[in-house]
Prior knowledge:
- 2 copies of one chain form a homodimer.
- Chain A has 204 residues and is an all-alpha fold.
- Chain A has 2 domains: 1-53, Arc Repressor Mutant, subunit A (Orthogonal Bundle), CATH 1.10.10; 56-200, Orthogonal Bundle (Tetracycline Repressor, domain 2).
- Chain A contains 9 helices and no strands.
- Chain A has helices at residues 3-27, 34-41, 45-51, 55-76, 90-108, 112-125, 127-153, 163-183, 189-200.
- The N and C termini of chain A lie far apart (66 Å).
- The mean pLDDT of chain A is 88.
- The interface between A and B is large, with 61 and 61 residues.
Amino acid sequence: xxxxxxxxxxxxxxxxxxxxxxxxxxxxxxxxxxxxxxxxxxxxxxxxxxxxxxxxxxxxxxxxxxxxxxxxxxxxxxxxxxxxxxxxxxxxxxxxxxxxxxxxxxxxxxxxxxxxxxxxxxxxxxxxxxxxxxxxxxxxxxxxxxxxxxxxxxxxxxxxxxxxxxxxxxxxxxxxxxxxxxxxxxxxxxxxxxxxxxxxxxxx
Amino acid sequence: xxxxxxxxxxxxxxxxxxxxxxxxxxxxxxxxxxxxxxxxxxxxxxxxxxxxxxxxxxxxxxxxxxxxxxxxxxxxxxxxxxxxxxxxxxxxxxxxxxxxxxxxxxxxxxxxxxxxxxxxxxxxxxxxxxxxxxxxxxxxxxxxxxxxxxxxxxxxxxxxxxxxxxxxxxxxxxxxxxxxxxxxxxxxxxxxxxxxxxxxxxxx
Lengths: 204, 204
């Protein structure tokens, strides 16, 4: 296949995913039908169905695109094993991860926190959607686990700390950031990170 | 109004709320119509409409009943100002709050984490629902803030720590517990609390 065609394919896919994200952010998950996606994308039905057979194909693509980059952002500030660079403290890591989520929203021009809430609800309702999204949740947890291992190596946590359990707590902080931003509107990456600093600091 | 009538009223309301919770957990938010609630409750349409004029009235009641008890659970382990009892460490507080959520699910015989995810998604989509739920989110944050103030008094955090910021992080841990339980199924209150202990412990 010539290279131009592959690029074209990737571009079309991205165009359909972006249209779906806009639909979900605006109308919620249930009202986002294939017809709505086709309409929003400005492409023909035939063209959209060439790339995605149905809504679940698009959800899978969204899960793989959007959330993977969160895992990648976490991996980015985790030094590789044996590296001389020390892992940053957890508050720096949380600030970077939450800021990445906001930057990505701006870059894609969609409200990713809103979309995240829609897809979680759908995963709670539909086991098929949950199974589509679980590997991505696992990838985010694994990225935090690798960070926690590096942070233990760097002496930021006790040597006998369990990196998987630390990863659960760090993973757990992301949905709470998203939800409080929606409900109360006052949380920023900087303030959230400062709260973690206050929580972690030893009393005088 | 005679007392028996008020009790009867409260019982009917609770019966309708419980029916709504079962509908939402099973079918999601969008498919939970007033007709579905009436059917699930086993009451007449006239009876249900006596208590709630529409779905938003029921959502408000759910928000006020379910989430308030989370705030109450947090308040329960926070000693009142001037008390000689010290506030428990944050990992004990998080374990109690997450365990309360699971106990309450069992007691009400509905999957509260699932319902929480449905209502958050609806709040993200519908500003009216968000406005209904925001005071409850605020109440949970305030309960954590009061806890954080007591924990600062008890010397668990630095004297200059900001209780509101600490409350943001502790509030933030609850949605992440719910979501990881759904997606990965491996988080328990005890393990989550142990993760927080590992995160908070000073390195050797």
